[in-house]
Design a protein that fits this description.
four-stranded mixed beta sheet, four-stranded parallel beta sheet, Rossmann fold, 39% helix, alpha/beta, Glutaredoxin
């Protein structure tokens, strides 16, 4: 037994010091560091349990009576304490036990924060120990957990009027964000507002999304059921610029377009416009097209050239009844492995849709993102 405890002691020391070495020299090797730490702690605990009596005697008798085992035991005990403290400090993690996840950031926020392109300095103007400051500290803690590129300084406007005046702050609770030459202010520090502010100061340029008009498309400023005012608002809140585009007038898709959305055209898109769309796509542009069954948009041949075939049908899925829906409103829960659908974990409903088929071509890679159930079919007799 003594042999095993001695081995456990030396193993705990060796793995502990190795973990400490990697922690200092190569901190990005988190999996290796945590594995070595776990090995050190488990062997340390084994030694503490098996040599508990020796530890007790060590503190009540002469050290010479305990020899090597006592030295190992003490070193392991201190090493475990120190390294556990280092790990807790380095790998901070909060737990949200609220039913509505009030202190948990949205997945898209976490993804954005984890990939911040550069450092951002925040200066928060709060009075000391106020509910507003406490609420902000709870919010910003979630951001700091995801990245080390955010630095924060707290300033009490009452005690530091010069700094407050320097930043042009006139309201308690104002957050000033600075990154490079960019600066912006947030007065109502919600997750949405703070994330949008981070987008503004870290993006070198705002991306522009155009919505095609002139063919009876769903309007971006309409509040009707088929309008896209909510989509426009959400895009703008995410830092995008949203504009309408009358392609017959411009003759080409603007060079600053990051994406062109064609949402529900009801009249034919003219040949001249299709040529402009083709030119835009060939230059690396991105088009998102939303079409309804039986709509006379005239884009069937155009889409076929780009590897997409539209079915002249309506998708019927009896499985929708199990979810309390209609046969013509398929419920989809089969998603392909793709960045677009990587966060799709719940079923989605698609009322009145037509089938879409990918056509393999030598120049274009097509990916089917989602599928209806195996019991569904395309009904052409309607």
């Amino acid at each position: 037994m003594k042999k095993f405890t001695s081995i456990a002691g030396w193993l705990a020391l060796a793995s502990g010091f190795a973990a400490l070495f990697f922690y200092i020299v190569l901190p990005d090797l988190k999996t290796l560091i945590l594995s070595l730490t776990a090995l050190s702690i488990s062997n340390g605990i084994f030694l503490l349990v098996s040599e508990g009596t020796s530890l007790k005697k060590f503190f009540s008798s002469r050290m010479a009576q305990h020899g090597t085992n006592a030295i190992i035991l003490t070193a392991v005990f201190l090493g475990v304490l120190i390294f556990t403290n280092l790990l807790i400090h380095r790998h901070k993690h909060r737990f949200d036990f609220t039913e509505a996840n009030l202190f948990t950031l949205a997945p898209q926020t976490k993804k954005f924060i984890a990939n911040l392109p550069r450092e951002v300095n925040l200066t928060a103007f709060f009075q000391i120990e106020t509910p507003e400051k406490n609420a902000f500290e709870n919010l910003i803690a979630g951001y700091l957990e995801e990245t080390d590129k955010i630095g924060i300084t707290y300033v009490d406007p009452d005690k530091n009027p010069a700094v407050t005046k320097q930043y042009g702050v006139t309201t308690y609770g104002t957050i000033v964000l600075e990154s490079g030459s960019k600066e912006t202010k947030v007065q109502n520090a919600t997750e949405e507002n703070l994330t949008n502010a981070l987008l503004k100061v870290t993006r070198d340029e705002q991306k522009v999304i155009y919505f095609l008009e002139g063919h009876g498309e769903n309007q971006i400023d309409s509040t009707e059921n088929e309008g896209h005012q909510t989509a426009k608002k959400n895009l703008e809140q995410d830092g995008f610029i949203v504009k309408p585009l009358l392609l017959l007038q411009t003759g080409e898709v603007p060079k600053d377009a990051s994406t062109l959305v064609i949402a529900g055209p009801k009249k034919p898109i003219q040949k001249e416009e299709q040529k402009a769309l083709k030119s835009y796509l060939e230059k690396g542009g991105a088009v998102m097209m939303l079409v309804d069954p039986k709509s006379k948009h005239g884009m069937e041949a155009f889409l076929k050239n780009w590897g997409v075939e539209l079915g002249d049908n309506i998708v019927i899925d009896p499985m929708s009844k199990l979810f309390g829906g209609d046969f013509a409103a398929p419920v989809v829960n089969q998603y392909s492995a793709h960045d677009i659908t990587s966060e799709f974990v719940l079923p989605t409903i698609f009322p009145i849709i037509q089938s879409v088929k990918a056509i393999p071509t030598s120049k274009i890679e097509t990916v089917e993102l989602l599928k209806t159930s195996a019991n569904s079919w395309g009904e052409s007799n309607f």
